[in-house]
Design brief:
Layout lengths: L8 H6 L5 H16 L11 H25 L7 H11 L2 H10 L2 H5 L6
């Protein structure tokens, strides 16, 4: 299955082995096409709106990870185990490493900010 900006963002997220390097450009492309400059290669959002979107994105990420832990594990986890894993996965340290590995900062930090 081809993965890239042309593929549905939802399909990329639902993939058994998602290509993180394709998810971020797909998100940026879809967002800019709907709300910003479709030709922009970076997330086209104002500095004022960026923190609001960051807040929303944090909640969406938590929901995606929580749903995955709840539904995709071969052995059911109790709520304490899920909470511990969720906290580790969405920690600043983990997300910073992931962002650096996939050059997410370049794509997701709007030009107006950095």
């Amino acid at each position: 299955m081809m993965q890239g900006p042309g593929q549905s963002l939802i399909e990329l997220l639902r993939s058994q082995d998602p290509d993180i390097g394709s998810i971020i450009p797909a998100f940026v492309s879809r967002f800019n096409a709907a709300y910003g400059d479709p030709q922009a290669t970076r997330w086209d959002v104002s500095k004022e709106d960026w923190q609001r979107y960051e807040f929303l994105g944090d909640r969406v990420l938590n929901l995606i990870i929580a749903q995955t832990l709840f539904t995709q594990r071969p052995v059911a986890l109790d709520e304490g185990e899920m909470t511990e894993i969720l906290g580790t996965v969405v920690s600043n340290k983990s997300l910073d490493a992931l962002a650096r590995d996939h050059d997410a900062v370049t794509l997701l930090i709007p030009c107006a900010i950095g």
